[in-house]
């Protein structure tokens, strides 16, 4: 009953004429902000401010976002992660778990391997030694694996990265890239380390769009959202360019950006794929230039050394999805520990298994590979380059 009486009372109050004081207040407010203020509605978000509505509130925020280059409604990159099945290795891999200064013996039987007697061959000492195997058996908590050749040895099966790049459906309208910081990356409200943190954190491998780029105190900053910035130390970013580079004489090519450590694939004027990579570190740079894929191998065993004492010997059995394009330099998968986004190889272009398989099945022998460094820091003199290696 009390609620009913309250409703009646409010209805009467709303029907009463405005008091002179309140009417005078409305009149003075209208004069202050302009005639017709109370006659126009607020613009809806996305509605053009053509004088028929007031650009305030959400509509004003949306207009400012569009002026800064943000799409409305918000639009993701026209891309998607390929099927995770591409990241499944075609072989099982184990790491030789002996000191790198020791030879790794291979035995004819499991019993001999457990007893450590009668080795039939060895893998030389080295810093990076991995083998593929067909079966595993443990003894006293220690793993032993049987190689495809039938021999047995001490080695520990490994897990490998599931990181994958993205497949594009159309050319992106913004720059894009990946977070590469080894620790969680928190964005800033302004392009400065002194700026307030946003509270939004990103993980290594997160894909971001870039709407603006600026430089502050010698550091490049990328705007990845409204009032959200990350530095170039935390993200690698590229601009897709579907125009054929000089020297490329076909409508299919692979671009390798050494500065940003990103690989891109183009076909018929469209970006079709991009991923984070790891190329040659100083002094084993990946050579800039225009090349062509001359051989593809589903599996390839790689071994060798660069130091005179062979202290850096590597033995990598059954490296999958390898494409040679510049002497021994190749685009291939890596199953050994790697941090994509930074130069780390002896000249090859290293990808995650999922990315390597996608590119291997897309590419053809004869496809062009354009390797370049927009920063100009990679040497271009061919005499400085040997054959290259993983």
Structural features:
14% helix; disordered N terminus; SH3 type barrels; L,D-transpeptidase catalytic domain-like; 26 strands; 7-stranded mixed β-sheet; single chain; 3 domains
Question: What is the compact description of this entry?
Answer:
The protein has 390 residues and is mainly β. Helix content is 14%, strand content 36%.
Cα-based radius of gyration, to the nearest Å: 31 Å
Q: Please name the CATH architecture of the largest domain.
A: Beta Barrel
Shape: elongated
In CATH, what is the homologous superfamily of the largest domain? Answer: L,D-transpeptidase catalytic domain-like
Total helices: the number is 5
**Biggest sheet: strands, sense, closure?**
9 strands, mixed
Count of individual domains: 3
Question: Roughly what is the average pLDDT, rounded to an integer?
Answer: 88
CATH class of the largest domain: Mainly Beta
